[in-house]
Amino acid sequence: MAKIEMKTPLVEMDGDEMTRVIWQMIKDKLITPFVDLKTEYYDLGLVHRNETNDQVTVDSAEATKKYGVAVKCATITPNAARMDEYNLKEMWKSPNGTIRAILDGTVFRTPIIVKGITPYIPTWTKPITIARHAYGDVYKNTEMQVKQGTKAELVCTDAQGNETRSLIYDFSDSDGIIQGLHNKDKSIASFARSCFNFALDTKQDVWFASKDTISKKYDHRFKDIFAEIFEAEYKEKFAAAGIEYFYTLIDDAVARVIRSNGGYIWACKNYDGDVMSDMVATAYGSLAMMTSVLVSPDGVYEYEAAHGTVQRHYYKHLKGEETSTNSVATIFAWSGALRKRGELDGTADLVKFADALEAAVISTIEEGVMTGDLAALSSIENKRKVNTEEFLDEVAKRIKI
Ligand code: NAP
Ligand code: MG
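A: This is the predicted complex of the input protein with NAP.
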């Protein structure tokens, strides 16, 4: 059988621990037997990040801008324990943070739904994709604890040196706390465009919500920017695609989300996205079944699993013990990237292969073959718990192209 050709390379970002082990197995068992794989390889494993003073992370993000599509393995974000474990020169920053800053992207997280694993909200029969605006608000705040007798004001100095003052609170009756937040029109606009582009891409509605009735300037600005960009750039494209943009208040949104069947993109302000993504992920069953894609406003895509490097399983693996680590989200990162590459290059066979790979994963689990994390959740009868490698072999057997 002739292998499927690729016109343009993918940017491949290798990573750490158990997911690095799985990464190689996925390539060997599920990709290279079928595809004449072309990648530009970057080793984002912590050892190599340390050797390159983290330059490799920056290079991989620049390459992603050049080629348009990347697939990334989970990576360690160093903390104090990792400094010793890897004898690091510095506590390198989160690679995902570095890549996101360079691509100016928005992260979309989508659960993979299989029969036998019922969401805690049983009406959620289709995935809810959460898009989190990963800039500003409370994550870049300035806060103070103040004593009784303090008068707190918001002071702004414009480019000409003119001051505008506004009273926050006069703490004449108590000690208290204050907080200053900001966001940028530019960042909000990028967020809006990423959401609208991803909606067109995946043919799903976009919901966006804020608290503009209470926050008449701050949250209202988000609402206005989304509305202006939608009107000017996306309204017709959405109509042609048969999808909608829907704005409501955040409390109305959560009520509607619970009553919904899923199948849309929920664009969230930074804090809402932080909180709601954990709620949605848990409700769908497992972090190991959650995919993640970073989409830049100019249409660059980086695919990965939402979970981390599964450190505990890796240490078992190092001791020679058997592991049953779920590779589904990492496989879907590969299939997502290959599909996008195929779409951009006009290689229909590559798109078909991505579909076939995902279908094989789903049928493996729906036929009762799964890793331990899913076996604990699945209601399927005669299920069989397999180890990390067996699961991939079972998927490989089911790939039909
Ligand atoms: P984690 O790797 O997501 O794993 C946490 C726990 O969730 C695991 O111990 C395991 O539970 C379960 N789990 C997660 N993924 C699984 C899978 N594919 N199959 C089976 N079980 C799975 O999070 P962590 O242990 O907090 O973080 C480990 C490292 O990952 C850290 O160094 C962190 O910096 C990094 N991280 C990277 C990314 C990224 O690159 N995007 C994201 C998050 C974390 P049991 O142990 O109970 O089986
Ligand atoms: Mg969170």
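The chain has a mean pLDDT of 95. The CA atoms of residues 83 and 90 lie 7 Å apart.
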